[in-house]
Amino acid sequence: MDALSSLLDGFATALTPVNLLWAVLGVLLGTAIGVLPGIGPAMAVALLLPVTYGLEPTGAFIMFAGIYYGAMFGGSTTSILLNTPGESAAVVAAMEGNPMAKAGRGAQALAAAAVGHFAGGMIGTILLVALAPAVADLAVDIGAPDYFAIMVLAFIAVTSVLGASRIRGLASLLIGLTLGLVGLDQMTGQQRLTFGSLQLADGVDVVIVAVGLFAIGEALWVAAHLRRTSGRPIPVGRPWLDRGDVRRTWKSWLRGPFIGFPFGAIPAGGAEIPTFLSYVTEKRLSKHKDEWGKGAIEGVAGPESAASASAAGTLVSMLTLGLPTTAVAAVMLAAFQQYGIQPGPLLFEREPDLVWGLIASLFVGMVLLLALNLPLAPLWAKLLRIPRPYLYAGILFFAAVGAYAVGGEVVDLVILLFIGLIGFGMRRYGLPVLPAVIGVILGPNAEQQLRRALQISDGSVTGLVDTPFSVTVYVVVLLILAWPLLKRFTGRGRAGRAGSGGVGGSGE
């Protein structure tokens, strides 16, 4: 009851004209920034830090929250329409959203994503209000073996359900893990795969890898096949979801938050793992398995809902523990410190107006995003009517600008082109792109957690399975790996019984 009364006070703060204006400005800025590949919400918040120094803290953080959610939606817009993720959390949206757009259902994919963001954000923020202390306690108890087990689950789950074969999925994952090794060893400081280049010592940025594999690889692939395909523009299609679409997506919208929110609250979590796991879950539960890879709407709705809920989960660790789990949370933590405020267990007591005003503004921001972007879905989808030579030339331009903006180094453009050629080769030989991106995102973290777990156990491998949580996760991994074999043997057994029954019947 205390939380509810505090939340009502927060709405009184968030709905003042000035703070409402900051929320609208944040949502608009975030959506515009998310559309540009490479310029993610973390960079946007960081760039605005000096500008907001003179603002009142509550208004500044309400605007930052609007940028956070708006950029996630903007990133999924280009991911769906142009196969160009604006940020890493939008990578999964391209897997089914882009085939939908190519089939003339881009507006439906964008509408499913918009409603998914709204549902995920709303449910995630409600869970933030109700469960913040409990989730924070759970996050504190999770150790290095548990983190490593979760990342192994993400690797195995995604490589098992993508591509024509598991071998190709694992090959793609290996490419990503190799790219993730580039740079300095986090524990020893030794250079790995830098070839003596100081610019590579910091590693390859995830955004450059995602934009290179998706945007540059796609542009090169389209350019190589442009003369063999018709140059007719892709139809936009009808603008709204019909009853069949809603019937297929409403469960995905509701499942996503319960996958995304806990992962957002876990340190070293973020939106990447839950969006991958949501995609896998929706594919397993779908009754339309033949559509996956060709434009299954559940593959957009579930991951987008999970991504939005994970953003609310991120705020749990940041506000209650002072522990940032994503780049955006880290920049927002710096903003708190800029105002002389220290997030932690006492923040709710010392700064109740700021905290509850920020939480209430999340609800306001979700409504604003839905109201702004749902009617604009057909308009965004009309981007696909641009002739493909001009469209992909624009994609290459914005991809290059985004990659250069990440570090301001010319070498980043060379790396972008190199990774784009890898993406082209992966399309040529049928390797799925997503496992490679997962390998780059999670590979360094998985290595770090593995080495920490082994250090804690003095090098004993049993240290990786010394918690109930990690054992449970590994059991799930074994079930995923064993399921095709079990299915094959049970299928042979049924075929054998059917065959013997048929022979016996003919002999009578």
Automatic annotation (TrEMBL):
The chain crosses the membrane at residues 20-49, 61-82, 109-135, 147-164, 170-188, 200-223, 315-336, 356-379, 391-424, 467-486. InterPro entries: DUF112_TM (IPR002823). The keyword Transmembrane helix applies. Keywords: Membrane, Transmembrane, Transmembrane helix. It holds the Pfam family TctA. Residues 20-437 form the DUF112 domain. This is Tripartite tricarboxylate transporter TctA. It comes from Streptomyces minutiscleroticus. The lineage of its organism: Bacteria, Bacillati, Actinomycetota, Actinomycetes, Kitasatosporales.
